[in-house]
Amino acid sequence: MASTPPAPKKRKAGDDEEDAEPIRDDDTWTTGDYALVSSDNVRFRVDLVHLLSAISVFRDMASVAAQGADRELHFTDDSIETAAVLERFLTLLIDATVDDKDIDRFSNFKHLASMTRFLVKYDCPFLMTVLGLRVKEMSSTGRSTLFMFIIGSIMDDTDLCISALSKKRRTWGETSVPDTNTTRNLTNFHCLNPQSLAYNRWSMIPGPYLYALHRAWALVGDSDDLKTKFQQVLDDVKGMSDPQWRRSSAHPPAARNT
C-alpha cells in the first residue's frame, strides 16, 4: 500500500462557526444508517451494507458502525472525493448505471474520470468491472471512444483500452476554435491519435498508457497493427515501471460519531 491519505476534516468545539463551511444534505441520498461527507461538505446517506459489499477497506469499520449510532465518513481530497464524485460512485454502487451525459460531455466526464480514480484508490474491483462494461456499452462516438480509453487506462484495464483502439476509425469534427488552442482536439485527426488531443484530455491518461499510445502511433500509425503494437509497448513499459504506479492509498478516512 502507498502512504495514508491526509487526515479527514474535523470540527472542534471551539472552532469559529463562521469560518466552518456548513455541511448540507444531498437532495437524493437522504436515507441510510451511514453517511459519506464529500470534501466540499455534502452529506450522502446510504446503508453501510452496500459499502461493505463493494469496498474491502470499509469492512474494518463494521464493528464501529455496529455500536448503534450513526457514523459519518469525511473525505478530504478535493480532486477525487467531491460531491460530484460521490454521487456517481453511489449511483454505480446501488444502480449499476452511468449517466449517458458522463460519457458524451467532457464537463461531465471529468467527474466520471475522478470517480474512476476513487474506485482505484479504495480498491473496488467489482465496481471497476461494472464501470468498464457500462462504458463499453455506451461507446458509440469518437468522443466516447476516447473516454473509454481514458477510463481503461486509469483502471489499468488493458482490455478496455484495446477495445477502444478496435473501434471504427473516427476523427474530430470541425469547430470554430483555432488549432493553436490547447483546449480543443485537432480537426480531422483520429480520435485516439495522442497528438490530436486537447491537453485536458491528454493529461488524464496515466504515464505508461500515454507513452504506449504515443509510441504505437509513431511506429505503425492508423493501421490494423495499432492495438497489437500498443499492447507490446505497454507490456514493455510496465515491466520497467513501479508496480504501484497507478495506486493511491486504499486506506479510508477515519470514521467519527455524528
3D architecture notes:
It comes from Vanrija pseudolonga. Residues 1-26 are annotated as: Disordered. Helices cover 42% and strands 7% of the residues. Helix 6 (142-154) packs antiparallel against helix 7 (158-166) and helix 9 (207-220) packs across helix 10. Strand 2 and strand 3 form a beta hairpin. The protein has 10 helices and 5 strands. It is of the alpha/beta class and 258 residues long. The longest helix has 16 residues, at 106-121. The protein has a 5-stranded mixed beta sheet. The model is unreliable at 1-17, 247-252 and 254-258 (pLDDT under 50). It has helices at residues 48-54, 62-65, 83-95, 106-121, 125-138, 142-154, 158-166, 199-202, 207-220, 226-240, and strands at residues 24-25, 34-37, 42-46, 71-74, 255-257. The chain is elongated, with a radius of gyration of 20 Å.
Kindly summarize this structure in a few lines.
This is BTB domain-containing protein. This protein is 42% helix and 7% strand.
Side by side, the strands of the main sheet go 1-3-2-4-5
What is the first-to-last residue Cα distance? 29 Å
Overall number of strands = 5
Binned, the helix content reads: 40-55%
- The Rg value, from CA coordinates, equals 20 Å
Protein name: BTB domain-containing protein
Organism: Vanrija pseudolonga
Region (Disordered): 1-26
